[in-house]
Fold each of these.
Amino acid sequence: MSKIKDNQIYIYNSLKGEKEKFVPVSKNHVGIYVCGPTVYSNVHLGNCRTFLSFDMVVRYFKFLGYKVRYVRNITDAGHLENDAEVGEDKIAKKARLEQLEPMEIVQRYTVDFHNVMNSFNALPPSIEPTATGHLIEQIEMIQESLAKGLAYESNGSVYFDVKKYMEEGGDYGALSGRDVDELMSGSRDLEGQEEKKNPTDFALWKKASPAHIMRWNSPWSVGFPGWHLECSVMGTKYLGKQFDIHGGGMDLKFPHHECEIAQGKAANNVDPVNYWMHGNMLTLNGKRMSKSTGNTLLPEELFSGKNTLLEKAFSTTVVRFFMLQAHYRSVLDFSSEALTASEKGFKKLMTAFDILEKVDYKPTSLNKEENVLIKDLCAACYAEMNDDFNTPKTIAKLFDMVAKINTYNEKQSFGQLEESTFKLLKETFCGMISDVFGLVADNSGSNDTLDKSIQLLIDMRANAKKERNFALSDEIRDKLIAIGVQLKDGKEGTTYSVE
RNA sequence: GGUCUCUUGGCCGAGUGGCUUAGGCACUGGUCUGCAAAACCAGUUACAGCGGUUCGAAUCCGCUAGAGACCUCCA
């Protein structure tokens, strides 16, 4: 519990445009809502970045001892498409093309999404609600807005009245820095526009066209809920009318999150969210990954290496580490070269991790300087994380620790640290890597049999060296490296690592 | 067209008024080794351009150039 007290987190609040002291609604508890995927196709790496960013955020809160309720929705209905078949549900379109039930599509890609998230070692949310599972609540929220005069019905559809909302003290545009008057004049001509009082008004309920397969009954028409409603409904239902953190990708800031604020405020007379967090985009070839433009990379292509952009296959853990090396609010460009560099650094980090996990601590005479240095490094890790989850800076500190760990290991001098300092080092270093960053060593290739086999070869090589039979000892070393096993000669004997 | 953001060394990527040598990768030298690798130590390369504010600016302001995001479904 004291860890919470010792670590005051500052969060960059998109709503205010600055870092703010994090004070939860309920002491030692965090309620966080993250906009989940629209399940009409495979999630790509760009989608993954956002979810992994917030996975790190949730993990850090938990690491400090907060009780976290993490809600991340599945959007399985309601998003409109803006090409030839305007007004049609994305999911419905795909369903017809593939001659499948809409829910079959939803099921397939939900499963895919879960598999991908698992492979990245992302923690599952506490609640993963679906839009279709909350239609009653959505209809109720529309009714509330209508009752308050902040929404109006038009031709079977219901729209949110932004102008009225502004007149009653609303601040539509505050999150995304937009001027409502400009939006009123600058909006494009979209289908259904004539039903609206003003171009900025957005749909709460849409009457379904005959081609629209996903449809439900409502007091106004057979149709489907508006694009922004589900998050408002599910966020407040599970986290309260005013909750701590709402996260999502930068691209959702406008209009999605702007509308969410308006809906929430209209329904409950309070700002629904205290801290808005927006993760930045993962780019490919300098441009944002996007389903609609096809500029994407799928996780499975990464693991198999089957993409012209990739020189080789990469593991999920390396990709995760790569992403953590950049701050979540910065654009990150994906490239094979950058990933290769990360992979090498990651291995170095994990080697030190293994050393620390296995080392036997025996106190010797105290080295005050080193003792203080380690304590400072540990404190710095927390300080960097507390500063708007600055993972790249935290990682820089971890690498400083790597140098220390390696030196201590080589000189067998962990004992020069106080026992409490050693424990702190282990807890901080290993805790940040595995608990907060969710990084796990790739031990896929190693097991007991392998370990014994390689140990046998190490012994044989040692004997060959003793007899100065370097041809044999080098052959063992070189052939092992060709297989992917690297021998490491140290003062205390030879160890190995598996590629 | 409107709104906004970014431009850091060979590459990735932090930083934000005066020592951060950020860190990683790569490279160079050294220690270790039978030779290597690994590890450690040391070192090199920088703040898009121009002008301004300031005792001092990569960091603040302005202009120019380039890139990107949002304005429409999108993490």
Amino acid sequence: MSIEVIFGQQLRKIREERKLSQEELALRSKLDRTYISLLERGKRRPTLNTIFALAAQLDIAPSEIVRIVETIFRKNS
Amino acid sequence: MSIEVIFGQQLRKIREERKLSQEELALRSKLDRTYISLLERGKRRPTLNTIFALAAQLDIAPSEIVRIVETIFRKNS
DNA sequence: CTGTAGACTATCGTCGACG
DNA sequence: GCGTCGACGATAGTCTACA
């Protein structure tokens, strides 16, 4: 499984746990709603700055998101 | 200080600790040498996939690099 | 509330060359 | 071994609109 797909799945999971809509997350992180949609479906690869912007609104450390992604990535490869 | 500048400084630090040249790192991570140079000087923002590619050749976890960056980022902001 | 599509701008990342 | 420059193709990220 590719890094961006894993990232997208985890982003969605974390967002839903926070009970935020894509719209809310987009508004708060100053990104576009359709872009959040693309990210969650693994159609885009976020830059480091984008990861920081998202993490800040999800009450999670950027490194923690990356840690989760890398853990899953190692298992599936 | 911006995220990309902090990232660049830490990338350079880690690379030098490994005693790798930009050329070597570029070759191994399948990126361009001039791009490594741009990254280290904070002129580019790496995507998540790029961070994974670099970390893999630096014997460090991607999340660990991000953790270092975010620690410095919090201090300086 | 989310997915998709298309058109668009900005930036990532490559490449060759020079100092 | 590195910084820089210019040109370039690829993709990140925006925006409007519709289902």
